[in-house]
Amino acid sequence: MSKALKLIKVNASNPKVWAVVIGVSVAGIVILAETQRRKRNAKALLRKDFGAFIKRFEILPFPQLPPPAAKQTLAGLTFAISDIFDVKDYVTGFGNPDWERTHGVADKTAVAVTALLRNGATCVGKTVMDELGLGVTGENMHYGTPVNPQMPSYVPGGSSSGSAVVVAAELVDFALGTDTTGGLRIPASFCGILGFRPSHRAISTIGVLPNSQSLDTVGWFTRDPSTLHHVGHVLLRLNALESRRTRCFIFADDLFQLSKVPKQKTADIVSKTIENLSGYEPPQHMNFGQYIASNIPSLKGFHEPAASMQNGTSALRALSSVMDSLQRYEFKTNHEEWIKSVKPRLASDISEYVTAAVNSTPGSIKGLYKVRTEMRAAFQSLLKDNGILVIPTVVDSSLKSNLKRGYSTEFRDRALVLLSIASMSGCCQMIIPLGKHGEFPVSVSLISFHGADKFLLDTLLDIYSPLQEQVGIVSNSAVLPDTNGNMDASAFLKEKFSRS
User: Fold this and answer.
1) Which parts of the chain span the membrane according to its record (predicted)?
2) pLDDT tens for residues 462-485?
3) Are 360 and 297 in contact (CB under 8 A)?
4) pLDDT of residue 42
5) pLDDT of residue 402
6) CB 360 within 8 A of CB 352
7) Per-residue pLDDT reduced to its tens digit, 23-52
């Protein structure tokens, strides 16, 4: 029995007691109403920025210099940055409150951010990211998970989740993120927007917290090809003119067999688009896994004992394993001292990865770097000076929020098979949205050789409109069932990802 009811029962005839009881009841109603109001306000706030910002601020661009100085190409545009970039007088949080608590404010702004400000863009805030740049889902237990505007009940993808969301939600014109083993490519695909991972070391990482220097890149998200192109010219310091080259698209057929999306909505759209364009050679097709197995000799030391070197999927697994080992080794070198001294509170999947990294003792460090070197050379040999490899960006984009422990690890293992290609070769990769399959965004990735960033950006301007026209044609027509699979690919998925 409540205290109010006890008061009524004992002092039923006392008017003062009734006044107290009524007052308590009214207060309770007021508190309840206030609680509900706050919840409504919180939901409204979430709808306003999709939970994507950690810090809101405004950093105005540098003034336009008088002629003959070049016009600021990003004037009037707004952008946001992941919480991994330094901004003068702000603490760079690395997606974790313990990191923020144990580090001081930055004394300089990251070089990439400064370049954007110098060219007329306005920075409006820092965005949520996976802790320490290690996650793939975009979930953050400390700051909340940004809401994917395309699929609110599904994760936005990570690690640069907030930056992808603010672009997809049209809160900014573009946003910066980082990509080590897929931190930009996954959220670009999940949120249905354009993304660009540049050639390794093509953009300065000064003022960006390191994860794994051999794999780290600064990338960006946009909704339209023109903005992607303009931002790329600023960050990559590109010349406006480049001699026209023919383009040769090479389709990695075995990789599309791993995708859950029918080829009619990915590879076939690209193929039909370039059929009608001038300056494109007839498309080529290949088994990329077998090419890797034959052209990366150092992978032999990382294959499973029973695996055949001619087994393409085995080579892809080995490549992703090498990338994972390389990231762990360099992450440990960068952050082991801080991890052991601070003992930060981390989400379970991030904690497991950090523990594994700190406790790891890679057998052959030289072997890891040798694979990377051979991968770069093999790509140059494959693509020469005009080749573009066409692959699916991710195997699956249907990952729900609030997942049970362990599922994100399985998803990460699966994703790394495709993501290891650009990360280990250091080549540039562009993510292009191609509408939806059911309720899920679909994308395709174009990869070109190291240093071909302008070539790839120019290709987007050339094919984007006809590509979207072809997407519309396919979306309005009946699509035949397509499993995309063969025995080898199906066995690969079943063997490694049986619980998905």
Assistant:
1) 17-33
2) 999 999 999 999 988 765 555 565
3) no
4) 46
5) 67
6) no
7) 444 444 544 555 565 455 445 545 579 999
| Residue positions counted in the chain | 500
Residues 6+ apart with CB under 8 A from 40: none
Contacts of 82 (CB under 8 A, 6+ apart): 126, 127, 129, 159, 160, 162, 163, 175, 176, 177, 178
Q: Mind listing the pLDDT tens digit for each residue in 484-500?
A: 654 444 455 444 443 33
Question: In this structure, which amino acid lies at residue 346?
Answer: L
286-290: long-range contacts (C-beta < 8 A, 24 or more apart)?
286/250, 286/251, 286/252, 286/253, 287/252, 287/253, 287/254, 287/312, 288/252, 288/254, 288/255, 288/312, 288/316, 288/389, 288/391, 288/421, 289/254, 289/255, 289/313, 289/314, 289/315, 289/316, 290/254, 290/315
Tell me the percentage of the chain whose pLDDT exceeds 90: 74
Alpha-carbon gap, residue 276 to 187, rounded angstroms: 31
Query: How far apart (Å, rounded) are the C-alpha atoms in residues 476 and 255?
Result: 26
**The pLDDT value given to residue 479:** 53
Q: Which helix (H) or strand (E) holds 186?
A: helix 185-191
Kindly tell me the sign of the dihedral angle through the C-alpha atoms of 75, 81, 84, 90: positive
d(CA 172, CA 235): 18
- 131 within 8 A of 96, measured Cβ to Cβ: yes
Rounded-to-integer distance, Cα 370 and Cα 297, Å: 9
- Return the amino acid letter for 291: Y
Please name the residue ranges forming H helices in 73-160.
97-101, 111-118
Domain range annotation of the chain: 49-476
Task: For residue 79, give the H/E element and its range.
Answer: strand 78-82
Contacts of 146 (CB under 8 A, 6+ apart): 50, 51, 52, 127, 128, 138, 156, 161, 162, 164, 165
**pTM reported for the whole predicted model:** 0.88
The 3-state DSSP class for residue 249 equals: strand
Q: Is 309 exposed, middle or buried (0-12, 13-18, 19+ CB in 10 A)?
A: middle
E-assigned strand segments in 321-427:
387-392
Given a contact cutoff of 8 angstroms between Cβ atoms, the answer to whether 427 and 326 are in contact is no
Could you tell me the fold of the domain covering 49-476?
A: Amidase signature (AS) enzymes (3.90.1300)
